[in-house]
Design a protein that fits this description.
about 180 residues; two-stranded antiparallel ribbon; about 50% helix
Length: about 180
């Protein structure tokens, strides 16, 4: 019976060979590139955006690897395949932009907190100076401690000097905040 259909046997061999070729052609979904360490990487996913085009040896849909010598045609060929390759990142990375914006907001919040801290300290210092000046103006005897740790009563000359010092502090520190500190 084998002799009756000799052409059918050849056809079956041809069909099996064609199916084998078609089954092997499903492999074009493979990527091949050279990583930063110089190793060849085979994968079914695209390489990271940081891999240069010249290191990508095979993309899905490519019949063979591009020539290793760069010419005008080898530079143009990968661009012709661009619809099959993953979209190239644009000039801005949304995640990077979000992190940058978050860092700027954190910096502004830090500056605002520092300005609030300085304003609070200025307010507290002004209140202390005003209370000290009110005490000096009341005429009550005020005692201070000298360098030896001894208690001394403030005389009129010391009282006048201290009053002048407190007026100067009130004039400079208790008004509106200077522009350098407000910003």
């Amino acid at each position: 019976m084998e002799n009756q259909f000799p052409s059918q046997s050849g056809f079956i061999k041809f069909a099996l060979g064609a199916l084998t070729v078609l089954a092997c052609s499903s492999a074009p979904a493979q990527w091949l590139w050279i990583d930063a360490a110089g190793n060849k990487v085979f994968s079914d996913t695209a390489p990271a955006p940081g891999v240069p085009d010249k290191n990508i040896l095979k993309r899905p849909g490519m019949r063979s690897a591009p020539a290793t010598v760069e010419t005008e045609t080898s530079v143009v060929a990968p661009q012709a395949v661009a619809p099959l390759s993953p979209p190239k990142p644009s000039g801005s990375d949304p995640a990077l932009e979000a992190k940058k914006k978050q860092a700027e907001e954190a910096e502004q919040a830090k500056k605002k907190a520092e300005a609030e801290k300085i304003a609070k300290a200025r307010t507290e210092n002004c209140e202390r100076v005003q209370r000290a000046k009110a005490t000096l103006d009341s005429g009550v005897r005020i005692a201070t401690t000298n360098a030896k740790g001894e208690r001394e009563i403030m005389d009129d000359q010391a009282r006048a000097a201290e009053t002048q010092r407190l007026k100067e502090i009130l004039r400079t520190d208790c008004g509106p905040a200077p522009q350098a500190q407000a910003q």
